[in-house]
Amino acid sequence: MTSLRDIGSFIRWRLIPVRYATMLMEYGKHAGAQRAGVSKTTGILDEQGYHAGPTLDAETVAALREIYVPRGALVVPKDRGAPFVNLVKPEDFTVDNPLMKVAFSQEVLDPAIDYFGGRLTLDSIQVLYSYPTEKLRESQFWHKDYGDRKSFHCVVYLNDVLTDDKGPFVFVDKNDTKRIRKSIAIRRLSDDELKAELGNGQIRTFYGKAGESVLVDPAVCYHYGSRCTSEPRYAIFVTFNSQTPFVPANPQILDNAERLAEVGAKLRPDLNPRFLRNILRLN
């Protein structure tokens, strides 16, 4: 039997007009941007919804794997719910952690700043361990992310993902996504449903070696999460939203914002500390 809480949750998170009302309630609470511009990368990202991202060096990949692969080995897969686990812990939010160096790097943070015209917030820094499943569930169906009307993912593989059985990130670009029927509620589509609406549009697959990445806006590009069948996948997801997202940032970010502001200031002395605090909703 459906409870009132379940109904309320559906109305709040699945009905698009309610999400926009939430956004407008937050509008104007945040300080302005430090800088803005349109680089070649973010110009293409804005037009197509995706762009090739930076490639991490072998030393950084090895350092990241040394931390997160042992944590992944301890994960016990569940037979329901999202088929992935975030391996990041609050103790990782230090200036020496290689994940923080990636998240605050010029190659990741600066395109995000540019994409939002300097008015952005940090949503999450995650290392997602995705494990094989027998049936598709939740984010493994085609969908757009509902956290904001505009979003920024940097997805970095920490293991080679060169074939479909390794669970590559699969998406439809911004223009072809417009072919898919709009709805007042958030949609999750099967492969057949998406292909029927996509018509002549193209499905794109991001294959890559460990350390390679893609920049994508998951709010404007239909996509699905890792469909691993042969082995788990490790991938970094650094996500930024606008200053007026539909949903709060990841609790890890909210609970450790002061610590992250200090880390960001040390890693990026070229950026105004107040600007970094804006990104973390501390001003």
Question: Brief description of this entry?
Answer:
The chain has 283 residues and is an alpha+beta fold. The protein has helices at residues 4-14, 16-26, 40-48, 58-73, 98-103, 109-115, 174-177, 191-198, 251-255, 257-267, 273-279; strands spanning 50-52, 84-86, 120-130, 151-157, 169-172, 203-206, 213-216, 223-224, 233-242.
Task: Please give a handful of descriptors for the protein shown.
six-stranded antiparallel beta sheet
Q: Sum up the overall morphology in one term.
A: globular
Major beta sheet, specifics?
A: 6 strands, antiparallel
Q: Strands of the biggest beta sheet: in what spatial order?
A: 1-7-4-9-3-2
Query: What's the rounded overall pLDDT mean?
Result: 90
- Runs in which pLDDT lies below 50 for 5 or more consecutive residues are 1-14, 16-34
The helix-and-strand class reads alpha+beta
**Share of β-strand residues:** 15-25%
Write the H/E string, N to C.
HHHEHEHHEEEHHEEEEHHH
Specify the number of helices: 11
Strand and helix layout:
Blueprint: H1 4-14, H2 16-26, H3 40-48, E1 50-52, H4 58-73, E2 84-86, H5 98-103, H6 109-115, E3 120-130, E4 151-157, E5 169-172, H7 174-177, H8 191-198, E6 203-206, E7 213-216, E8 223-224, E9 233-242, H9 251-255, H10 257-267, H11 273-279
